[in-house]
Amino acid sequence: MSPELEVFLEVQHFYGRQSLAIDRGEAVDWAAMFTPDGVFDSPTYPDPVVGTPALEEFARTVHRGSPHLHHIVTNVALGDVTDDAVLVRANLLIVTTHDITTGGARIERVTTITDRFRRLPHLRLHHRLVVRDGQPDPTQEGATHD
Fold it and tell me: Could you give the CA distance from residue 130 to residue 22 in angstroms, rounded to a whole number?
């Protein structure tokens, strides 16, 4: 198996474990997938969430407030891969599966995530930047910064 394919499979496995952890309310497990100084930066929340204790509380709050959310990561694309870091871009869909009115599922948000991982030796997320669909992406060339 090629080294790039091994990294890709590790990233896919990471996303599956992380999504299931937050969806199940496993806040400690979700936060442990970040580096101790890890950052979750999303426009849905007023400030970036930084560090293990804050990440744990954030995950508890997300699950407590919306226990029927599912985080679905797709279109995973590897960027730079080095011996100690991996850059990944992907789409993250937030889906609600419990709607008392219709019994159906509803896509709440479509986002693009840019994740910077550290290899310690296993992947740990150091920084996640979330950009909502239709918003400027500061990681793209030519993006305007306000």
Answer: 16
